[in-house]
Amino acid sequence: MLFISDNPIKGTIPTSLGNISSLHYFNCGNNHIVEQIPPELGKLSNLRQLILDNNHNLIGQIPEAIFNISSLEVIGFNINNLSGRIPTTTGLHLGGNQLEGEIPLFITNASELQIISLDDNSLTETIPNNLGNLRELQILLLHTNQLTNEPRERYAHINELIPTSIGNMSGLTAIDIEGNNLTGSIPSEIGKLKQLQGLYLDNNKLKGHIPEAVCNLSDLVQLYLYGNELSGLIPECLGNLSMLQELYLGSNKFSSKFPLSLWKMSGLLYLDVSQNSIEGEVPSDIGGLKAIVELHLSSSIPVYLEKLSYLQSINVSFNDLEGVIPSSGVFANTTLQSFLGNKGLCGVHILDIPACAVTNPGKQSKLKEGVLKIVTPVVISSFLIFLLVSIWIMKRQKKGKSKDVEKGISGSVYKGTLFGGTAVAIKGSGNLENEKVCRSYGS
Q1: How many C-beta atoms lie closer than 10 Å to residue 100's C-beta?
Q2: Shared-domain flag, residues 115 and 235
Q3: Quick one: pLDDT band at residue 256, thresholds 50, 70, 90?
Q4: 79, 193, 365, 442: least surrounded by Cβ within 10 Å?
């Protein structure tokens, strides 16, 4: 055994290391090793574990000779600058490199494989349809690649994002495929993975609804589905997942009302259902979320307002709106005054508002503890606000408060105070018929 990890060791891996024929374990992770991995390591015929994680400056391809070592159980090359294509072995730790190409189909020949870590690379094409053969697999990390569901020639009948055979991998405790271009629906077979604790499918292009089979994952702690195109109802049965601590459903197309069962999840820490089309009010029994750290129900400006061709002006100031300000339709000629008091809004075409930054909260960017953020959607156009305020003030002034009315050449000026204490003045047009219409409407 040779363990020299977590040191400031610099330089290259000596080729003479390949002469230690009795070496079983070699761990040189978290150092400053540079240049290429010497192919001479392929002579270590008794090697069981080879760990070179977190050196950052290992470059070039992984020598194929290493993968001819039949005794090798684990190879760890995470977080380096390796390139080229992927060989295979009984354990793959190759995340955080620059690997490209496809995930080899023969990867499933290693039937004892327990961990596949291929995240943060440039892998393309599809996820192999035969991953279900890896019955011992416990961790599968494929996030932040360029995987798609476009079928390879040899698999012309693949029509789902995640192969349904994934339900056969009963030992899985985590599935992480976030940050890809995967489309299709979430297969209900996922519900067979009784030991699953983390399901991370965020920032893809998933469509359809959340299958109720997900509610069978009684050990689930983290469920990340934000940044997709999921729609329909949020399953009521999610409230039965007593172990669930983090639920991220934001930036999808969920509609209808929010399931009441979720308000009763006493162990839930993080809940995000923002940027959807959910209706209804925050219920009085929200106190059932006894452990909540952050609750995010914020709303954005509906994009469909761009299509209202007769809408000439809009003002959504002083709400709690977030997200990108639409740029066409009535929004093309709007100014800062229409969006005051919405700290979460951003835009490109309105120069007085900060440009939108690309954000990805991700499960590794932990939310600040001790913050309870409840943001409810309010989107009202300016002409409605003006009309209702005008009617309310005029109706009050006409009931005897004549001292608050001043006459001018162009009409009457009505003084009043809004609910928040702000003093306002509404100037009439001088047209008696118009004032009659407003009084009639206000009555």
Answers
A1: 15
A2: yes
A3: confident
A4: 365
Place of tokens 């299509």: 307
How far, in whole angstroms, is CA 347 from its chain's centroid?
20
- According to DSSP, the β-strands at 405-408 and 411-417 are antiparallel
Domain housing 6: 2-296
Q: Please give the biggest Cα pair distance in the chain.
A: 103
DSSP assignment string, 58-115: EEEPPPGGGGG-TT--EEE--SSEE-S-----S-EE--SS--EEPPPGGGGG-TT--E
Q: Is the pLDDT of residue 99 over 70?
A: yes
Nearest CA to 52 out of 115, 96, 112 is that of 96
Residue tagged 């992480």 (tokens): 176
Q: How far is the C-alpha of 142 from the C-alpha of 126, rounded, in Å?
A: 11
The tokens for 257 are 């009302």
Does residue 240 sit in helix, strand or coil?
helix
Last residue of a domain, one of 296, 316, 343: 296
Least confident window among 213-227, 243-257, 273-287, 404-418: 404-418
One-letter identity of residue 37: I
State the pLDDT confidence band at 292, using cuts at 50, 70 and 90: confident
> Average pLDDT of 140-146?
86
Would you say the pTM of this structure is higher than 0.70? no
Pairing of strands 115-117, 139-141: parallel
The mean pLDDT of 133-159, rounded to a whole number, is 67
Question: Is residue 428 domain-shared with residue 287, that is, in the same domain?
Answer: no
CA distance 132 to 169: 6
User: Considering its fold, how many domains does the chain have in total?
Assistant: 2
In a domain, 319, yes or no: no
Higher model confidence: residue 91 or residue 154? Answer: 91
pLDDT 10s digits, 165-189: 888 888 888 888 888 777 788 989 9
What is the per-residue DSSP string for 17-39? GGG-TT--EEE--SSEEEEEPPG
| Domain CATH for 275 | 3.80.10.10
Residue with tokens 């359809």: 208
Distance CA 289, CA 278 (A): 19
